[in-house]
Amino acid sequence: MVKVLITDPMSPRAAERFRQNGVEVDEKVDLDKAGLARIIADYDGLAVRSATKVTAKLLAKAERLKVIGRAGIGVDNIDVDAATEKGIVVMNTPFGNSITTAEHTIAMMLALARSIPAADASTRQGKWEKSKFMGVEVSGKTLGLIGCGNIGSIVAEKAQGLAMKVIGYDPYLALERAADLGVRKVELGELFAEADFISLHVPLTDSTRNIIDAAAIAKMKDGVRIINCARGGLVNEGALCKALEDGKVAGAALDVFSVEPATENPLFEAPNLVATPHLGAATTEAQVNVAIQVADQMSDFLLTGAVANALNMPSVSAEDAPKLKPYMELARQLGSFAGQMTETGLEEVIVEYEGHVCEVNVRPLTAVVLEGLLRPLMDTVNMVNAPVVAKQRNIDVSEVVHDRKGDFHTLIRLTVRTEKRRRTIAGTLFANSAPRIVNIMGMEIEAELGGHMLFVANDDKPGFIGGLGTILGDAGINIGTFNLGRDRESGLAIALISVDQELSAQVLKDVGALPHVRQVKALEF
Hints:
The protein has 17 helices and 22 strands. The protein is an alpha/beta fold. Strands 8-7-6-9-10-11-12 form a seven-stranded parallel sheet, with helices on both faces. A six-stranded mixed sheet has the order 14-13-15-16-17-18, covered by helices on one side. The relative contact order is 0.09.
């Protein structure tokens, strides 16, 4: 009989559901690192929340472990790469906390607008300071949402119920989806200039870290109020502290901090701050939802091999996995390339298959393409929930299987249409196993994708390659491969270059300043 270990406190419904599903379960929530390491080899599944640290060292002792289930969204406490190397599936429950977190956001906004925490403390001290706690109405005010995904869209709905005007910044939000939500889509600078309240609903990535910093705050209205129930690190805490002290920001409500547990933080001394200890998911209903979901997902995997909400494994059977593996990698690379190149709202995705790939089940391949495409948008996307996310955002997804034979024995072509442009990229497999990019925007190219890549589009004029090489050489950047393509002589040309280290902002700026360069993009694979 398969056995699962629960090591963090969660709803009793989790253990109850495991047993109902025919899985043996032990609950041991008081184990230290050494204690967990001693017994982990006895279990097929491990169910955790955020407290248990699932490290590579621990996984090295997990001889039977097949699946780790996170009752919640974030997996910062799980070494996903180490689990993948061990062949251990990591699952989460990405949608169980959405309503709860959205409601907490609204509660924080109202508490901030009416100074409820400070007024409560004052009144409990026997004071009666009515004039000190003059609030503002939210009705008629403009709420700016940074991120209009699952949680952000629920916040928008509830804010409109409070008669607020809602604007949203989300590069991946299609205009049709924005209209359905009743949200006016704006650029980030517009949002800063117009919003009376600003609420964040994006994952913490390199592009969103410190998205609200001193420069952003300077663009905001005097007296703006900021709410963050998403991720610590989205707001530069030093800049916010100064803005609260000088009155530029009238108030801030934070449920998350850069360092947690946040037992000490300079913001705690700043005026007009409402702070809670990461309570976004802390409701009875949410805890029950994620507990039941994680138990069902883990049970299904252990008993039937079914996979749901896996962060590191495609949804395919064990029999099909070896055959599909190289196609999966090609699909992921194509999606990731297009996703990193996309800077405006996605409207349509077309995935076409030709040749040998048509002989396999292409549905999971399309899901993997969407996963790579949407990954820059949300850090919890995977091949299982990517189609759902695309549907929620009104992105039209088409899957076309061609009977015809082309120039390659197998070909996957991805076409992405956004609000501003249409882009196509295609790839094949060399020797039936090695992914290669063979066409970008109609230009033939042969490129293997490495870890760090530089993409440049330029007018096909003499001197470009020399100038580019000089910039990279002066910066001490070694070139791994250099691949070129063009649509015609003296027309549009592209370069796709692998380099040995991450490209700095200054290098990208210098490349962009070269004559005849149209676009520069750093890509990571």
